[in-house]
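hey m, so remember when u said the tokens were messed up on ur end? i reran from scratch. heres the input so u can diff it against urs
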Amino acid sequence: AQLLVQAGAKVLTYDIYHDRANIPGCTNVSDQDWRTIPTDILSPCSTSGFIDTHTAAMLHTKIVVGSSNAPFKDAAAQDVLETRGVVFVPESISSAGAVLADSIEQFDFEAYRSARPAYVHAYIHSLVKSKTRELLNRARISSRVPSHMLEDVCTDPYTPPVGSFFSQYLEEHTQHYDVAVIGGGMAGTAASYWLSKLAPEMKGVVLESRTVAHKGGSSYGDSRMYRQMYSQEYFSRMQTAALQLWDELEKESGVQLLKPNGLLFYGETDTGETVEGSVRGVQQTCEQLGLEHEYYADPEGMRKKWEQIRPGEKYEGVYEATAGSVNASLSCATMMGQAQQRGWSLMENTRVEDIQVSEPGNVQILTHDGKLIKAKKLVLCAGAWTNEVLRKMGMEEMALEVWNVHWGHYKVAPEIAPNLPQWFCFQKDKEDEGSWDGGLYYGFPPEDKDSSSPVIKVGIDFTPNDQKFRTEGMEGFAYTPDPRVASLIDQFVQENWSGIGERRDMQASPYTMTKDGYFVLDKLPGRPEVCMFTGGNGRAFKFAPLIGRCLAELVLDLPPSYDLSPLSAMRTALRKEKAKVAAEAAAASPAGQSSIGSHASSNEGHHSNGNGNCNGSHGYSSGTTASNGISSKAGEKLGV
């Protein structure tokens, strides 16, 4: 079920024991009659013989394909289903994983013994996919029912068994690179851009599970703030260095990525230091570093400059005229495009399934579609998915938190659009009062100020202190905006600005947060072949070209262009508590897992137990025979 979710499917799960169908990313329909729910595909993963003639007549699905052994009670039930035009893929093909694994073990033993389980799975997946496609194509051409075509797709038993071709499969699907980058967001595209500049002789590839700067990640959109005013001099100086590289990128590509808007920091002065600093904090840094800025000691000066603002009577403000916005999606596309022009490859919609660093300089990556990527170096830029990738590497996870952060667009009157600034408002956290209001709000001016229907982007830079909004990974991340959080933004806009109309949309995006608010930009402890960036804390994009350059320098063992010591992967703030790690490991053990929604063609280990094979090697020349075993829990599960 989770593999289907990762592939982008909407998955419904059902079990007679309701809670067992609570699978991240899926919708549990165990309180409904599964037989009457419309679906495209029904994937039975339960006991044999549960589809009788009555059930077959009720099903609202187009295809039945799964891992259940003999899902029909009798031939009459199968005939009822197929007569209705529902396609049934026999389990002797769809669930042949165990017998195929046996064939590999018997006829290519050395490769089988040395291969990671994921590689065996990949080969089995390719065989099942190919055989299923062959069966359905032949059935379509001949206008016959697929289950009546099994003899037509059987491989000649006197040909070499499929298991003997495992080594050949691995060789044919292996691609070699000097550097592989996982993640096509800000850091990944920036790293590829700079690696292609600093080491043009290197062969590199970016692996992205969806598309570059996709909507579900943290690098999507047309607006991110850039600014030199920070409470911490470290980040202020970092922005100054990054701006020089932004200018270089724009000149090289011929694409405008930055738009100067000016930026107003305003609000209460007793908020303390927040994730974005404070009004007094940035004022102090600007003065210490000699940065050009305007200071407003009271709200009157702000009202005169921006008529639409409604500041509190004790509000103060700092304005940086040279600040502005970065087009995030366009920047990622531009950096990736520049790298591709220098020979780099991009593999979109390519999910990483397994990573192994068997020895120094030998990184092996297996993708969901069976590609085996071998590289000398790896750059990990997986953002909110960082710990998921670390688990696949067998590495210790980091103490990262994924925040669910809301933002939306609001209509504004055309006559006031030209004078609306870019702003950030600081108010005290009201959570002690029982509110979810964290007090930090921001806004961007209209992208097109001359439009007849201009809109501005308004968002929050806080997340309610609730498990719903703060998770340790992307499993179960709620992209659907929360009405209560959306209403906080509505209320702020109405109370603090005039001329801003109704909300047009609201969205939720993931921010990857560290406990201390600093990024991670370092080599992975114990794995010098692996460099990484994560923990952007919602403020990393403005530094993109500098982050990319520093990653490239780490890969090439060059001195970094900026002090990376505060961004060490070894710092205490990134270590998970041992007790928490142990509890999570116990929860993830096989004994604590349900097998609802298990992948039809996978085999969890190398060794076959015969489960999921009705007719042995039907359709394959495997050279082996499988038993008709059924999982001991088979009668308790039904995947929809």
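this time it looks ok to me. The two ends are 9 Å apart (CA to CA). if urs says something different then somethings off w ur setup not the seq
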